[in-house]
Design a protein that fits this description.
mainly alpha; 9 helices; 222 residues; disordered N terminus
Length: 222
């Protein structure tokens, strides 16, 4: 049998390093570990019930992702979000999200469209209930499904990376309820274009969405 014949034959098994990586990644994304905060390796080893070897492996991966920084005298700390770079982050998002929406309009399935509509409903319900803490995860889900519909793994990875940077920035510069209402309204315009399977309208709606958010958020500390 050729090597490709084995593809998909075995279930994916996560190593301890994978699980540590996911735990730390989630803690950073949700703000449980904040910029500049020190990561106590001994405490982490005890709380997760693993040796320091998988922790070191996970830390190296997170350093490569730009989420952790190791220094000789201060140990491992959560990387700061460079506020001067946030305009560039939003410019990158604008270009990528426009491409994602354009491709998604051509390829999206009825099931993916239904998933986006469900997330929109949950975002609107969270807003009405004042559950602002739920919105970041729901927003990531929306853009994740959209990237999946575009059909290219690399676009999904870039979307996740940029969204994570924005989420970390928002921890220090929280998005107001009014801004989140703008997000939901702008998502509605993207959805309308997707329902029509109109690539140009979808790209334009996505570009306007990210540009609008950049004007609201980067201007806060400009």
């Amino acid at each position: 049998m050729g090597e490709n014949a084995w593809a998909g034959q075995l279930p994916a098994v996560k190593s301890k390093a994978d699980l540590v990586y996911e735990s730390l990644h989630r803690a950073i994304a949700q703000g449980d570990l904040k910029a500049g905060e020190r990561v106590n390796m001994d405490e982490l080893s005890r709380s997760l019930g693993v040796s320091k070897i998988p922790i070191r492996e996970a830390v190296k991966r997170l350093e490569a992702d730009g989420l952790l920084v190791s220094r000789v005298h201060s140990g491992v700390t959560v990387a700061a979000v460079d506020e001067t770079e946030m305009r560039g982050v939003f410019l990158a998002r604008e270009a990528i999200e426009a491409l994602v929406a354009e491709l998604a309009a051509e390829r999206i399935t009825d099931g993916q469209l239904a998933d986006l509509e469900q997330v929109q409903g949950l975002m609107r319900a969270a807003l009405d209930a004042g559950a602002v803490d739920e919105l970041a995860d729901l927003n990531s889900r929306f853009h994740g499904v959209l990237a999946q519909a575009a059909g290219y793994r690399i676009l999904g990875e870039l979307t996740d990376q940029l969204l994570l940077t924005v989420r970390r920035y928002r921890i220090n510069a929280p998005t107001s309820g009014l801004s989140w209402r703008s997000v939901v309204a702008e998502h509605d315009v993207i959805l309308d274009a997707l329902r029509l399977r109109d690539p140009q309208a979808a790209a334009s709606a996505a570009r306007t969405h990210i540009s609008s958010q950049a004007d609201l958020e980067v201007a806060k500390k400009a």
